[in-house]
Amino acid sequence: MFQSNYSLASLNSFGIKAFAKLYVEVRTISELSKVWQSPQYRTAKNVLVLGGGSNLLFTQDFDGLVIHNLIKGTSTKAENDETTLVTASAGENWHHFVMYCVQKQLGGIENLSLIPGTVGAAPVQNIGAYGVEIKDVMVSLEAFDFQTGKIVTIQKEECAFGYRDSIFKRFAKGQYFITAVTFRLQNVGYHKLNVSYGAIAQVLQEMQVVNPTIADISQAVIHIRSVKLPDPKVIGNAGSFFKNPEVLQEKCDEMLKVYPKMPFYDSPIASHKKLAAGWLIEQCGWKGKNLGNAAVHNLQALVLTNPGNATGKEIKELAIAIQQSVWKKFGVTLETEVNIL
Predict the structure, then answer these.
(1) Are 252 and 276 in contact (CB under 8 A)?
(2) pLDDT tens per residue, the chain (341 residues)?
(3) Which candidate in 110, 246, 314, 337 is catalytic?
């Protein structure tokens, strides 16, 4: 069951060469419970729950136990004429789950097509794209509580969702192993499509789609992401490396006087505006640049890549250099979206 000195290179989307002191796969809650009761778990210096490995940067070997979540399964339950509850096990591939819902003509997550990772990681990060976030559709989740060894149900309201944030990244970090997530999706005919964000409307026009369906929106998003973002299977990356920074309205106004074409967006906080991290990085001259073996993608400056032989430390050094230059030029702090270990 447990494996020592296990290579994690194929289990992180950066393709970074790193090893786990101990590694174990769990496919059922019963297996997870046995791991929790084991001496290997009890004596582990650190414990890491691994999903798709799409939001991780290893800068060194992991001195502890890696538990790989491979729990699978999906089910639906009609709630009423308008909505359906869909529950997916945490080990399910996120994009495959979106396609499952699209095929069943259930709307609400089609804008989140082609996001890498697993269902279990989605609420941790409160993943979002093209005007939709997990908090908009999630009802609750089930999780194994490492403190008690019991399965608990956590409602959406208890997750304290924020921009790429939740309790699972803060005070509850490491406490829970998410096993399943339940979503409330709209049945076809009741779902209002979201085409106002990004280039979705433009791509639909290019596709000559006049009356788009849920599947059309999904295909448009897949096209946009495929063009803008590198495939991790080809070039190691974790998608967006930094969060879009939120600044005070006054700060945004000051910057617009100097950079009138600077893109910005509304923030959930009325007194703030959200800036485009990719634009800030590009203005600092990083787009398409290398630092050692690490690189900034030539089409999207928000994406840091491992073109082949980069180490996690090199990618971290590149990230720090970018943060320093953005602060120097704009006085804006960039926070990482990726979990650096």
Answers:
(1) no
(2) 899 999 999 999 899 999 999 999 999 999 999 999 999 999 988 999 998 888 889 999 999 999 999 999 999 998 898 999 999 999 999 999 999 999 999 999 999 999 888 999 999 989 888 888 999 999 999 999 999 999 999 999 999 998 888 988 888 888 999 999 999 999 988 888 887 776 887 888 788 877 888 998 898 899 888 888 888 888 888 888 998 898 888 888 888 888 888 888 877 778 888 888 999 999 999 999 999 899 999 888 999 999 888 999 999 999 999 999 999 999 999 999 888 99
(3) 337
pTM for the predicted model, two decimal places: 0.85
- For 194, phi and psi rounded to 5 degrees? -105, 105
Instruction: Assess whether 164 carries a catalytic annotation.
Output: yes
The yes-or-no answer on residue 166 being catalytic is no
Of 240, 246, 267, 314, the catalytic one is: 240
Q: Structural domains in the chain?
A: 3-69 (3.30.43.10), 74-228 (3.30.465.10), 236-340 (3.90.78.10)
At 162, the amino acid letter reads: G
- For 224-241, b where at least 16 C-beta lie within 10 A, e where not — what string? bbeeebbebeebbbbbbb
